[in-house]
Amino acid sequence: MMLRLAALGQDLRGSGRERVVLGSIWGLGCAGLVLGLALPPSASTSPGLGTQLLDDVRILLTFALAATIVMGPGLAVRAVAAPRLRLAFLPLPGLGLLAITGLVAWLLGLAGWVHPRVVSVLVLAPTLALIAGAIARSDSPTLMSEDEWFAISVIGGALGIAIARSAWSLGPVNELFGGTIYKTLEATDRSDSRISYQVAMLVTHGQSPWGAVSNSYFAPYTFSSRGPLAGLASTPLALASGGTPPEAVGTPLWTPFDAQGFMAYRIAMMAFAGTCFLSVWTLVKQLAGVRAARFAVLLAATTPFLVHEVWFTWPKLLAASMALLAGICVLDRRWVLAGILIGVGYLVHPLALLSLPALLLIALWPLRGAVLRRPRLVGPVILIVAALVFLFAWKEINGPHYTQSGFFSYVTQSGNFDTWKSIPTTLGRWLSDRLSSLGNTLVPFALFLFGSHNQDVNWVNPTCFPFCSGGSPGIIHFFYEYWDSVPFGFGILFFPFLLEGLWAGLRRWRWAIVATVVVPFLVFWVYWGSANTGLTREGLHAWALTVIVALAVVEGARGFRWLRSRPVRAILSSRVIETLLVAMLPTLVTAHRVLASQFWLSDLVAVLAMVACAAFLIARVWQEGARAEHQTNPSPTESSA
Fold it and tell me: What is the mean pLDDT of the chain?
């Protein structure tokens, strides 16, 4: 339904249909809030058919609530005060409101004054009313252009696949936290998808971020190791949906929409991650025009690695989104705002700092008209100072509890030898580790053929590392390629086109590609030493989005020849099929079933939703290709960079 509403909103010029679409999404969000309060989700681990259907309705309504709160305040600002507020900046007021609400709820809970759920509702309910009032008062016939609605519909398709994957009860063999509400959908050692939720647990029960309870949540790290913003922002949505995060982590059994609020948390985190596609849209539009922006958001939302990262629900894509917004501000020479956005991104996830090299390079030497001997020093200094304010503030807030030494030590590590086997790092071992990491990242099938023994893809059997042949089935090893490597992460059939597009960009805009694509990759390659199974999942999220930006700008400059070619269009469509295979095939092969007997109805809805959303995205690819075939070459202003 949400996809259809977004698609209906695409052709709205001069009509009231946009108000109908926005009003429908707003109404569904209001219904989600009312349902969460009046009828909280059941704690039963054996829901009947009626409960499963109600849980599916809850998922839809919670997504509508998350979308309304994330995008609504920005749309309200656009409606009454800032009609030129760009699409990528629309989520910032909503995200800020959610994070502040979570923080206030925590502080009041710590003081024992009021329950965090009450605070959440007292903020979200009036916010919904204010959003409706602001949009209704707007004199503009439309608040969003047809092209912006196209972007929203495409992003909705990607989010639909991710949410449906999370609602499917089955998972691959050896799935971490399998059978519980915390299931990671991957046979992995990475529990990061739950870390931000642990902030919600602290908020709900008024626990100190540095006490024994908090330390038990985050061990072997601490609360200070990662920023709290994603957890704070997701808390009001989890509470407003009727969920109650537990005080002890435990192992609550999986249900489609759990009483602990973890599914609501997942949906909120996926909505936050979806903002990265808006950042891609706005950055490409600024560089190469709206037609290139349409292609960019379509390319990004059909990239297997990026969609996978949406449903894995760690906050890395949200941090990457902030980094791209900072890049937009650098292009606008808005140095303070660029530094603030990097600082905010750091408080989402430390990987935001990894975008600083690219930002500083293009600040010192702009994309056009740069002179090596005359770097522009003032802007980069302001940017760094503004970002450092957030770093020092976070350090001061945590006081003696502050520790991030583990993140700084990655550069000296050599894979898991020093981490797990206490083998000291030597220069030779360091170089060998980095070469293995490079090969597993850039060479197709390298990880599958030569790295299947690695502990990081066999967490189920760590004791025999590095001598075992692997504790996971081969299909699990193979699909790690989509998480860890560039060739599969961007689509294996598309990989040659990716290389050709980057080469064309390097020949045409050498400094731009070197500064934003080559240097950041090399910096992270040198930095990352914790695991050598491939770099993409470890911290190349902003880099992957930047590659999409570069490809879209290149394609815009040469008239979208990929979209105009039907064989290439078929390859672009195949990336959606690959995404669907990543979502389903490891589970189908290792679980040997499509539907769980206990949850067959909700599973059926989830599987059909994944297929329907994939078909929707494929249709969008072909529609955009047909559009490109009938349009003239882009104007010089659209193809410039």
Answer: 91
Q: CB under 8 Å to 48, separation ≥6 — which residues?
A: none
Contacts of 170 (CB under 8 A, 6+ apart): 587, 591, 593, 594, 595, 596, 603
pLDDT of residue 16: 77
Q: Are 279 and 88 in contact (CB under 8 A)?
A: yes
CA distances from 427 to 249, 296, 306, 465, 534 (A): 41, 41, 34, 22, 20
SS3 label, residue 617: helix
Tell me the pTM: 0.94
Give strand ranges (E) for 562-640: none
Ranges of the chain with pLDDT below 50? 12-14, 418, 464-467, 633-641
- Could you tell me if 527 and 414 are in contact, meaning their C-beta atoms sit under 8 angstroms apart? no
Residues in the chain: 641
- Taking CB atoms within 8 Å and a gap of at least 24, the contacts of 224-227 are 224/394, 224/398, 224/401, 224/402, 224/403, 224/404, 225/403, 225/404, 225/406, 225/407, 226/195, 226/315, 226/349, 226/350, 227/315, 227/346, 227/347, 227/348, 227/349, 227/350, 227/394
Question: What SS3 class is residue 268?
Answer: helix
Torsion of CA 242, 247, 249, 250, to 10 degrees: -90
In whole angstroms, give the CA distance from residue 534 to residue 487: 11
CA–CA distance from 49 to each of 169, 602, 605 (Å)? Answer: 14, 8, 12
3-state secondary structure of 115: coil
Sort 37 into a burial class: Cβ within 10 Å, 0-12 / 13-18 / 19+: middle
